[in-house]
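Predict structure. Chain length: 339.
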Amino acid sequence: MTLPEPITTAALVLHELHGPLVWETLQIPTLAPDEIAVDIHATGICHTDLMLMSGELPTRQPGVFGHEGAGTVRQTGAAITHVRPGDRVLLSFDFCAHCANCTAKHPAYCAAFPLLNTAGHRADGSSPLQTAGGGAVYSKFFGQSCFSRVAVVGGRCAIPVSHDLDLRVLAPLGCGMQTGAGAVVNVLGLQRGQSVAVFGTGAVGMAAVMAARIMGAEVIVAVDVREERLRLARELGATHTVDAALGEGVVGAIQAVTGGLGVQFAVECSGVPPVVPLMLAALRPRGRAVSVGAAGITEEVRFNLFAHLMGGKEYVGCVEGDVYPPEVGALCWCKRGSG
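Prediction complete.
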């Protein structure tokens, strides 16, 4: 629908690759029936946003990014029934809700995921964000583009939350936190008493560490090159830490704390290809590993196929923790004060 008065918003806009984000005033002249205008209170910054800004992932300029938002509903499209103005919402990725993966509650693998999350426009080709002169702006990144005071988001991106939760804490749950935690819970299926190694302890890796602790893992090994991150990982639940600067020595260090067997599970959160063969080597026979760290679209991984086969090991990829956004488990942990 065309709004009686266009919404004016300040937004961080990228005009050229490797350039700065610049505050600009943009216009929101229309709101589709399945869209929501959200006043953004807080947003995280994800590595994927930085990859767009550097050209490692394809995008267009001018563009508004950001996909870890939280805020208050300002206005809703005609088809929106689950929230109303004034409601507080956590934002996550968009999905069609109709394809086979969506109906099976695996919307991160939605058949329409590229169109809804990375195309930079609505399905009809229009953009909800426009320059003062009416020019289209790349938007709807992960259904939201929340580097804007007001974000136009897909209805399924908005998850209602109670008023007693701090939106500044909630914002990263919509991507980074659910990615790390979901990889441990949904993809690896880690259970009490088992072992896991987490390679890369940025925000996503820390979420994996916390989830492993909550699930009752007996051995949680955090691997990183930065000592300050390893210290924090220990505070958050890691039972052991390993300096990634050891290179191939990382494998021996992990085996040393697992009776020589290696870990049952591993999560790669760095997006650095050479880490993957080390992670696989650190698995015990029939171990399972998952990569969640975003790498450039041309990056490739090499590992010893014979050793992988003989060890009966599994290696899978994972988007957004394979979560079903309306049932974000990490939100329940946040309410209970866990993690």
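Summary: The longest strand covers residues 2-14.
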